[in-house]
Structure formats: C-alpha cells, structure tokens
Amino acid sequence: MGRRAMLLAAGCLLSGxxxxxxxxxxxxxxxxxRVQLSASGALRDGADVGFTLRLLDSQGAPLRGARPAxxxxxxxxxxxxxxxxCRRKASHFVGGNWFDTxxxxxxxxxxLALNAEPSISVINPLNGFGGSKLLALVELKAPxxxxxxxxxxxxxxxxxxxxxxxxxxxxxxxLANTQVxxxxxxxxxxxxxxxxxxxxxxxxxxxxxxxxxxxxxRIDTGAGPHEIAFSDDGAVxxxxxxxAGSVTVIDALALRQRAVxxxxxxxxxLAWSGAARLVYVADSGDGSIVAIxxxxxxxxxxxxxxxxxxxxxxxxxxxxxxxxxxxxxxQVLDTAxxxxxxxxxxxxxxxxxxxxxxxxxxxxQGGPEVHMVALDGLGRSGEAIKVxxxxxxxxxxxxxxxxxxxxxxxxxxxxxxxxxxxxxxxYYYKEGMAAPLGAFRNYGRTPRALMVVDRSLQERDPGxxxxxxRLPPAGAYQLVMxxxxxxxxxxxxxxxxxxxxxxxxxxxxxxxEPGQGALTAGRAQRLRLRVHGAGEPARxxxxxxxEVLIFDASxxxxxxxxxxxxxxxxxxxxxAAPAPGLYFMHFQAPSLGLRWxxxxxxxxxxxx
Length: 608
Description:
- There is one protein chain.
- By secondary structure, the chain is mainly β.
- The strands form twelve sheets. It has a five-stranded antiparallel β-sheet, with no helix packed on it. Strands 43-50-49-45-46 form a five-stranded mixed β-sheet, with no helix packed on it.
- β1 and β2 form a beta hairpin.
- The longest helix is centred in the N-terminal third of the chain and has 13 residues.
C-alpha cells in the first residue's frame, strides 16, 4: 500500500502547465535508486513552480508507480547536511501533526463533502487538530446541486439562489456568487477552453467565460432538466432537454446552435465516446439509446427497457456502462458495433457510476452495498459479468438528492471514497478489501456528494513525479523526499530568492488589542488584531490575505474568516462565539510568510 493510502486509512482510520526549461536542483543515489530533483523555473518568492522528482532504477530505467512523498520546509540554521534533522522532519511530516507542519506539503489533498445543509465540509485526511480532521466549513447561500473544480476554484450550482458559488481552494472562502438564471443545476467544463464552464438552467445553458465567474453567454435550448456533454476537443456541446424530448447540438466555440435532434420522450443521460466520436443519449421513458455525431445526425438507435438513468464510458471510450434504475440491470454497450454485449442484475435502484484505474463502481439507492466490476473483464460478448460488492455503510442511502456523485476516487488510484447520507459518514474503501478500511465523520452534516482536491505528487511521465505549487517567502529551505519501497530519504537544500520589492520573511507575532480576550457567547464582536515582526509593526506592509481560523476546544465548531487590513499591521475580524468555552485562533498569510502552524496563536474565552 502506498504512503498516501496508509495515511488515509490511519486517519479515518497549480493548475496550469509550466513550460519553462527544467532547472536541476540536485541528484542522489541510494539503495539502487537514482533521484533527480528539478524545478520548472527559478525559485523566487511567490512564484508558481513545478517540482519534478525523476526516479530511476539501477539500470537507468524509470521507476514506475513508486509514490514518493515530499515536503518543503525551512532549514534550521546550522542543520545543512544533518541526517538526524532530516529523519526527524520526515518522521513528523509522515505522522501528520497539525502543529508541526512543513511550509509546503507536496502530498496534500482534501476530501470535500457537499452537504444537504448549505455548506461544504473540507476534510484533511492526513492531518488533524483538536481531535478533528475538519479543516474548514464553507457556508453557501443555498444547498448545492452540482459542482466541479476549475483551477484553484470549486464552482457550485445553487438552484434556490439562482447562482453559482466560486470557492477558493486555498483560503476556502466564497469569492463570488454569480447569478446565471433560474434553477442552475448541472455544471460541465469545456475541454480546451481554460476557465470556461457551462451551467444548465431552467431554459438552457449559461456559459461562464473564466474562473472568476464572468457570464459569457446564455443559450436557450428548450425545457429541462438538462445534461451537458462535449466532444473531446471542446468544439461541440450537446445539451439534452428532458421536457422537450430532444438534444441541442451547439458550436461551443462560436456559442450558437447547430441542430436540434428528437431523441425520445425523456432523455436523462448523455456521454461522449472518444473512440466512436459520437455522443450517446439514454432515455428513461422508452429505454432507447441514440448516438449523434457532431453535425447533429443520428448514427445509431438502440432499443431498451424504460428506466435507464445513467450512462458512462470506461477510459478509452469504446465501452459504455448503462444503468436501469427500474429493472436493476447493468448493461455493457460496445460502440464498435453499437450493440449491448453483456448484462447483469445489480439490484434495486442503481443510480451512479464511478471509475478507478481498474474498477467500475456502481452505487444503489436501494441498499448500502456498492458493486464493483473489473474493467478488464468487460466487452466480451456472451460472457457473464463478474460483480463483487462491499458494504458502503449501515443504511441504504435512499433517494438521490444531488446531481453530483457520492463516490470519488482517492489520489492513489486504487481506492474509492463514498458518502452515505443516511449514515452522515464518508467511507474509505481500498480495492481488494472485503469492507471499507474506515470512515470520516462529517460532524453532524449530511454529505450528498464528494470531491477530491488533489495537490500531491503525480506520475506525469514514466518515473517522473511532479507537483505544481506556489513558493513560500524567501529563505533557506529543504525539500524532504521520502520513498517507502525501496527506502530512500534525503533532504535537498534549496534557496528561495526574494522577488523584487519583497523583503525576506521574518518571525511574526499576532496580538489582540487590550481588553478583547473575553467574549460573550452568541454576540458578534469585532476583534482588532496587530501583526508585527522584529519589533517593526509600523513598517509591516498590510496583507490582503490574512486568514483567521477559530475553533473550540473540541475541534468540531470551526469558523474561517478573512481579516480586513487597516494598515500598519492592523487588522479586524468579526466573530460570534456559538457557545461558552475556550476558542483557539490560528493565522495564515502567505504574503507575510505566516502559516497555520507558526507560534502566532491566540486563546479566547467566551462566557454566558
């Protein structure tokens, strides 16, 4: 089991291509493994940089599937080359102690739960504090229906608010709520057009032109609800119109209609097949599946049983899986012949599909069991489908209440996360096990969908593991690299230069102005803070990104706020303690070099 999988089991138990020439940063050989570290550009304060670890075996061949771990941390004065210090750091970072964290965790990923309540739970599966792994709770204007990640933003559709929320995945703060029209629901990212997101509304689609939520166009397509799919180059969009029994074909570059195709009484699911270069539309009313090309011509029509409710293609795009919520059947569609070549009974109410590298996962409304089918056994006409299952909780999840999926693949590639709304829990299942390895609490909230925001090292090319990140303030650092099998540990010394006009970071402190340590529970109070470093509060430039995290002694009640800069190192933040007791304040400001684990912490007392 890889390091991330082990830590996740124990715990629940930048975007963008950087095209600069690699800058070599160091090389070692140990236990028959050669490790080469490089960066995509110069190491400067605040720069977006990609770090690459190239791993080779004793024969010079790429070491695939190795799953190295890495952290960037400040170098303690006089510790250069200190093997003991390097081991201590690796031990602490692997252990995941919230109060002994690195400057940058290059293995970090977060599990997000879209709740029935108008909120998003952000869970850090590798680290926790105060007995809790709840990193943040993002409050929304209304319950979310669907969501997706675009760069450093998570976009959430909110039908009751007529808007899409833009959530920043670094501060976990809602940056904007963009009004898009009545009943926004399904969201879809347009391939090849960075930042462009399509939103299904009551009468068609709204197109957001960039990750800041700018509205680029509205296109009426007919009565909904609507599903959205794209050709793999993003040039053509397909929008199903359930109320009109049709699919609208749109030139996604010019943002205008090409054709309207009558499909059946109630098209409910559609998906693009890259192998066939066709979009396939499933109809719940008559069970038919219709294949349409980019020009709006019907290429094939398959008959079926009413009740079809889900359609998805396995990686490669040749084989499609079709679920029927009424008959409880799983069917395999081969696009090479446009025929159903296999089928199996799954049980009552199958409604969602998810894929890992080796498995298809099938979720059901009628029972807590999640079914699995090996991908390498699909497409063999006439052969039975082998179906396995595991218990995804104690209770049947019941009626589907969100467009977004309750299943999300874990970053290590051979595990699945599953939300069970009835249990109010999130389960972690490792492939090959008979049951989930453990569960995360959702702290009294009902999870209706899951997402994984991954900021960890990924194998982009054979033996080359890369992560894109934003560098911390200038100073002397170490990149701590750890490989479990074979065992390799090394600390690469790095120097991050100061960017123009940015002074090197220094030790900072945060203080409350006198007389503000005691609060009255239930009453909002403005807290006035002052950040100072090296006895120079007047010269400290105000940062616009000072975040304040306040949690109670149990670690369950948490509030995350963005402080308002007043100038000369002074800030203010409004906070209402929900109940009497002790509250702990932590601070982060990347532009000042202040991080959550720094000693700049404060304690508040709330009384009746």
